[in-house]
Amino acid sequence: MRVVSGIQPTGKPHLGNYLGAIVNYVKLQDEAHAAGGQCFIFLADLHAISMPHDPAELSRNTREMVATLVACGVDPSKTVLFNQAQVPAHAELQWLLNGTARMGWLNRMTQWKDKAGKNREGQSVALFTYPVLQAADVLLYQATHVPVGDDQKQHLELARDIAQKFNNDFCREDAPLFTLPEPYIPPAAARIMSLRDGSAKMSKSDPSDLSRISLTDDADTIMKKIKKAKTDPEPLPSEEKGLEGRAEALNLVGIYGALSGQTVAQVLADHGGNGFGAFKPSLGELLVETLAPINARFMELKDDQEALDAILARGAAQAREQGLPTLDAAYDALGLVRR
Ligand code: TYM
């Protein structure tokens, strides 16, 4: 069992990142540790330069993201926790895989289409080739399980296509180089939506801070954001069918369920018939209860730059060593002479 996943250190991590991915980093880290497997979680700082960015902010966010992940339960004694920029093998393997990835495959990526919009010509080359770097990230460590939210599913399918084509083109049939990675997507919290618009995903880049709960929001801010969350005037239904066409209501019920470990049906069995005036305070309290310990731990860790840098340096040293055999084998398979 080899668990690999990444998160971009851009902006503050939010409830979507937490429920969609980070909760499963911790779950799979513990499962891998118990089973004698391995877990690699990294900050995708190389991915972050595909969009305009402020260098000072990127360094600050990178350290803050380490503090957040540790506060959430990612344990550097069980997980190789690092940032891509300290492990050149990610960028190297990306270049090797660029020979295998096809333009048509990248052109079909919905995240590329969404982010580029009508201005494709004006985007960085990195934004277009971003999914190839993501493929390198997971293939380098022979990932079996990749915990992600639903929005990364297509990128993972691409990673599998690249792995398969490379194996077919350059490896003997009985000795494929790359393991095909499986996405590990939480059924209930695969896509947490914006608190202001039930049709848009909760995201770090939404200009409205009210659209998301940041993992470092304090109790008052959380209660305020939940109170202001967009809803409709109807009370909650008693059955799931009644949430059809009510995206905002479904999102809040889904968040409640993911936090309390209940299905949507169970949440509705308890809260059906209640209006949002009653449901929102319960949801707010549940959020505060979940996030308060994370927040407290984050506050303890965030200013200790030396400790955070030491975690990254140690993780990077382990990652460099672990990725080497696959990188070497990829060079060899391609016939590149290096010695
Ligand atoms: P990023 O930084 O956008 O998000 C990190 C993780 O959070 C999940 N996520 C969500 N899940 C549910 N609801 C949401 N609203 C929501 N928003 C974000 C994402 O699916 C992701 O799992 N390209 C990746 C980073 C990356 C990566 C990788 C991931 C780089 N290389 C290799 C896995 C494997 C990204 O930008 O995630």
Layout of strands and helices, then pairs:
Elements (H helix, E strand, L loop, with lengths): L1 E6 L7 H20 L3 E6 L1 H4 L6 H18 L7 E4 L5 H10 L4 H5 L2 H7 L8 H15 L5 E3 L5 H18 L11 E3 L34 H10 L18 H14 L3 H8 L4 H26 L3 H29 L6
Parallel strand pairs: 1-2, 2-3, 4-5
For the biggest sheet, the summary is: 3 strands, parallel
Distinct small molecules: tryptophanyl-5'AMP
Helices and strands, in order, run as: EHEHHEHHHHEHEHHHHH
CATH class placement of the largest domain: Alpha Beta
Total of DSSP H or I helical runs spanning 4+ residues:
13
- State the shape: globular
The Rg value, from CA coordinates, equals 21 Å
Secondary structure class reads: mainly alpha
Q: In percent terms, what proportion of residues is strand?
A: 5-15%
CATH architectural designation of the largest domain = 3-Layer(aba) Sandwich
Question: Which ranges are low-confidence, i.e. pLDDT below 50, for 5 or more consecutive residues?
Answer: none
Intertermini distance: 32 Å
Supply the key terms:
Tyrosyl-Transfer RNA Synthetase; binds tryptophanyl-5'AMP; mainly alpha; 339 residues; 2 domains; two-stranded parallel ribbon; Rossmann fold
Structural summary, described in words:
The chain is mainly α. The protein folds into two domains: 2-190 and 304-333, 3-Layer(aba) Sandwich (Rossmann fold), CATH 3.40.50.620; 209-300, Tyrosyl-Transfer RNA Synthetase, CATH 1.10.240.10. 54% of the residues lie in helices and 6% in strands. It has 13 helices and five strands. The chain has a three-stranded parallel sheet. Strands 4-5 form a two-stranded parallel sheet. β4, α8 and β5 (182-184) form a beta-alpha-beta unit. α7 crosses α8 (153-170) and α10 (247-260) crosses α12. The longest helix has 29 residues, at 305-333. It is globular. The mean pLDDT is 96. Tryptophanyl-5'AMP binds at residues 5-8, 16-17, 20-21, 44, 47, 134, 137-138, 146, 148-149, 151-152, 189, 191-192, 201-203.
